[in-house]
Amino acid sequence: MSRFRDRRDAGRLLAAKLGAYANRPDVLVLALPRGGVPVAAEVAQALGAPLDVFLVRKLGVPGHEELAMGAIASGGVRVLNQDIVRALNIPDRVIDAVAAKEADELARRERLYRGAPRRAWAHRHPRGRRPGDGGHHARRHRGAATATAGAHRRGGPDRVARDLREASGGS
Length: 171
Description:
Elements: H1 7-17, E1 29-31, H2 36-47, E2 51-53, E3 56-61, E4 64-73, E5 77-80, H3 82-87, H4 92-114, H5 121-124, H6 138-167
Parallel strand pairs: 1-2
Antiparallel strand pairs: 3-4, 4-5
């Protein structure tokens, strides 16, 4: 039996726990498409905060695409699973080729979700909260978390935004 009636219910319950962030100009709610969007929409509405997407694409091992050797994410973030890369002796040129292909798909999805090109969320807001979709895509979520967690440990949400701005060529 689920703890939530649906994803919107989960978002309302999460929002209730994040009340300290309500109506703050430095808060942005980030959603992992697709399942995280209904959760994040409820959080954003309750907090009076803008909503954006944080897109992540798995970098699959060629010939075994379900095995993740890493991930790329919005803002130019790239994370590699060095254990997999070393164990399978995957050359940099192969990683770069897979990353380039996934970057094309990431860009296509960003246009799809956002419509006209616009500045990435990291350029607009110094802080973000990223409700997920219940852990159903653990590898993708782990990539998103890894992309932000190191920066968060080094300096909180402001550092996350600064690192993502730098990674995407912003100031």
